Amino acid sequence: MTTQNEFFSLSRFWNLLKYDFNSNKLHYIATLPVAMLGIATVLWIAFPGEIKMGHGYSVTSVPFKSNSYNIFLFLGAVIYGIAIVGNSFPGLKNEKKTLIHLLLPSSNLEKFLLQWGVRVFLFLVLYPILFKFTADITSEIYLAIHKYYLSSNNLKPSLFPQIEKFSFKQFIGNNPKTFTLNSSFVVAMYTLTVSIVFFGGTIFKRWNILLGPLSIMGLILIVFIYLVILSNILNPTQRGFWDINLNINAPKLFNDLIPLTMFTTLIFGILFSVVLWVATYFRFKEKEV
């Protein structure tokens, strides 16, 4: 390995990528359909309306709105994040695999970038798309089956369940002036959560499936403490220290467009994610010694 390409070589990285795919081919191929099946099954159970034996039918008058998907989106991100991102660096799970992994003809940076690209970047990009696609297909099939059942059994059309399509607009709003900020805020918090699980893969190893969620709970606690401190700074006369008396929409910065809480949380999320990636790299690099 020459000094020129000691840290990164495109051809060497490509060979490492092919090696990783061939070694984990079944896992990679099965991940998408298994994830889609899991999401579809949970949503199918959660959707209103139930076809009963003997041509019976029951339905609730409460519609399944776009924000009704949120809890399933969040739980799926946690579960699949732990299963996929939390199992980063599989070659470090035991001494034998660690030895084989470290002897591969590639630099530590290339091995890190492979795991970051496959486990973090692809997950961040593909999971929201996969959830949206699966939710839309599942709702279409569900409604089509129920519509056919109601019409074929001469049941009232009013029984037809009301199911909206899932949309990301609820997270970012419709104001074009704050669209970029809201989108960045959602992406930053999402990235930070995944980065914590990614970092946990080098610390907790096989215990990451248990300690990863605890780390996310720790993040929530940190956010809570941050809001408490910010609330006390902005409202020094409030009675209890642990009370959060905070208007998230005030004060605002940059011509009253950006709330202070959202802006500072955005900066915190971006910086902490980068710190976690760097810490993960150096944690992985320690295995070389």
Short description:
By secondary structure, this protein is mainly α. The protein contains 9 helices and 4 strands; from the N terminus they run ααββααααααββα.
Protein architecture, described:
With 289 residues, this protein is mainly alpha-helical. The protein has two domains: 1-167, no CATH class; 173-289, no CATH class. It has nine helices and four strands; from the N terminus they run ααββααααααββα. The chain has helices at residues 10-23, 25-46, 70-84, 95-102, 108-152, 169-172, 179-203, 208-234, 260-285, and strands spanning 50-52, 56-58, 252-253, 258-259. The strands form two sheets. It has a two-stranded antiparallel sheet. The chain has a two-stranded antiparallel sheet with strand order 3-4. β1 (50-52) and β2 (56-58) form a beta hairpin. α3 packs antiparallel against α5 (108-152), α5 (108-152) packs across α9 and α7 packs across α8 (208-234). It is globular. The model has no long low-confidence stretch (mean pLDDT 77).
Using brief descriptors, characterize the structure shown:
mainly alpha; 289 residues; two-stranded antiparallel ribbon; single chain; two-stranded antiparallel sheet; membrane; 2 domains
